[in-house]
């Protein structure tokens, strides 16, 4: 399962020497068509990186033929010179593959405030373009890793069409249309407008609800390219549902790997007056350091859940709140529920369920207990 699962895509990953570790750091994903329709969503951080500026312009016409990605440097806060570096990177891919430069998106990830070593990056781009293969998805996924400990890939096949994807992200995971770097591909035959609508809905329901640390990156980008190579035009609802599944798979992988977390936590809020209320409550709990500390310590401290709910503007009655940890309702009606000793938090997966009893809307936020063991092993702080 990778970005080359759908027909009409090749990919490659290579080592250009951008990382002191010597690990792979340049990837290219090429859409060989016949369609070049595409959509993308980007960080809403007002401080955004040069590749985000370039890629917004590149995908504005709803077309992309290739995406080039590098790890080992974010090319953020590098001014006009950094933008020229992004343009030069896109131009190199276009030249090597015979593409239109405006149809090449650029993504970068790594340390903010440092220029990319173009004397290393461009030869790496050449090598990646030369190595493009229908079997290159795994190499591309490995090349975009920064503090990730494992590559992240997903895919699904529905009848005669498929969706594939890869992602990176082990920190600065917080919502704002897109979080982290994600490349999605499909061989379905869809228009740019249809891709954009499906991508925004899928992102809203998945990546926007993955919240590890409340920090939004300067480089966040999620792209979706369609080759149309299957010749099949799926119904919009069916395609969106499949895309949501792939994005949810990637989002869960990101949360699982984020910052060396010991627990993956799903916070399900039900009975909300609106979807907005459900998201607000779930996100407030997810961002509570006291709540995270409790989970890390194996303590089903529902008082910390209630205190987080209480600072939101969501509609609820404090005497009508239910909270469950892994299926045990430790708080019923805003008061003491089942014996908290019945809760087992020894496993990696934790589900916290909150019922506001204020309506019928619901939402699930993915987070973790945010430990920082990975700092001991990683010298770089990256986007």
Automatic annotation (TrEMBL):
Active site (record annotation): 179
Record-marked site positions (Involved in the stabilization of negative charge on the oxyanion by the formation of the oxyanion hole): 109-110
Pfam family for this entry, one: ArgJ
Compartment annotation: Cytoplasm
Pathway of action: Amino-acid biosynthesis; L-arginine biosynthesis; N(2)-acetyl-L-ornithine from L-glutamate: step 1/4; Amino-acid biosynthesis; L-arginine biosynthesis; L-ornithine and N-acetyl-L-glutamate from L-glutamate and N(2)-acetyl-L-ornithine (cyclic): step 1/1
Record's keyword terms, sorted: Acyltransferase, Amino-acid biosynthesis, Arginine biosynthesis, Autocatalytic cleavage, Cytoplasm, Multifunctional enzyme, Transferase
Coiled coil: none
CDD domains: OAT (cd02152)
Leader peptide range in chain numbering: none
Annotated site residues (Cleavage) in this chain: 178-179
Enzyme Commission number(s) from the entry: 2.3.1.35, 2.3.1.1
Enzymatic class: transferase
Sites where the protein binds substrate: 146, 168, 179, 259, 378, 383
Domain of life: Bacteria
Catalytic activity, as annotated: N(2)-acetyl-L-ornithine + L-glutamate = N-acetyl-L-glutamate + L-ornithine; L-glutamate + acetyl-CoA = N-acetyl-L-glutamate + CoA + H(+)
Its biological purpose: Catalyzes two activities which are involved in the cyclic version of arginine biosynthesis: the synthesis of N-acetylglutamate from glutamate and acetyl-CoA as the acetyl donor, and of ornithine by transacetylation between N(2)-acetylornithine and glutamate.
Family affiliation: Belongs to the ArgJ family.
Subunit text: Heterotetramer of two alpha and two beta chains.
Family matches, as NCBIfam families: ArgJ, PRK05388.1
Protein name according to UniProt: Arginine biosynthesis bifunctional protein ArgJ
Originating organism: Tessaracoccus lubricantis
């Amino acid at each position: 399962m990778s970005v080359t699962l759908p027909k009409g895509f090749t990919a490659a990953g290579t080592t250009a020497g951008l990382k002191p570790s010597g690990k792979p750091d340049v990837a290219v994903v090429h859409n060989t068509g016949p369609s070049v329709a595409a959509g993308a969503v980007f960080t809403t951080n007002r401080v955004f990186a040069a590749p985000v500026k370039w890629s917004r312009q590149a995908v504005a016409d709803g077309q992309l033929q290739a995406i080039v990605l590098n790890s080992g440097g974010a090319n953020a806060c590098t001014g006009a010179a950094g933008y020229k570096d992004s343009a030069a990177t896109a131009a190199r891919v276009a030249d090597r593959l015979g593409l239109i430069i405006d149809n090449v998106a650029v993504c970068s990830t790594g340390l903010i405030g440092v220029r990319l070593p173009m004397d290393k990056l461009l030869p790496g781009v050449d090598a990646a373009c030369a190595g493009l293969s229908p079997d290159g998805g795994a190499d591309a996924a490995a090349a975009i890793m920064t503090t990730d400990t494992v590559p992240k890939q997903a895919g699904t096949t529905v009848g005669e069409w498929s969706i594939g994807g890869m992602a990176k992200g082990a920190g600065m995971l917080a919502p704002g249309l897109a979080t982290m770097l994600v490349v999605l591909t499909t061989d379905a035959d869809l228009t740019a407008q249809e891709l954009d609508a499906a991508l925004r809905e899928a992102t809203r329901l998945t990546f926007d609800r993955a919240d590890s640390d409340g920090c939004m990156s300067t480089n966040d980008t999620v792209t979706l390219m369609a080759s149309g190579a299957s010749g099949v035009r799926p119904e919009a609802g069916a395609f969106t549902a499949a895309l949501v599944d792939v994005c949810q798979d990637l989002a869960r992988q990101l949360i699982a790997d984020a910052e060396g977390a010991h627990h993956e936590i799903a916070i399900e809020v039900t009975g909300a007056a609106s979807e907005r209320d459900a998201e607000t409550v779930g996100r407030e709990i997810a961002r509570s350091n006291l709540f995270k500390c409790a989970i890390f310590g194996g303590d089903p401290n529902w008082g910390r859940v209630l205190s987080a709910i209480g600072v939101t503007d969501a509609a609820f009655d404090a005497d009508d709140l239910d909270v469950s940890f892994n299926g045990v309702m430790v708080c019923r009606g805003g008061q003491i529920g089942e014996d908290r000793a019945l809760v087992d938090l020894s496993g990696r997966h934790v589900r916290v369920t909150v019922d506001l009893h204020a309506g019928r809307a619901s939402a699930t936020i993915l987070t973790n207990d945010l430990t920082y063991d990975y700092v001991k092993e990683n010298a770089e702080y990256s986007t």
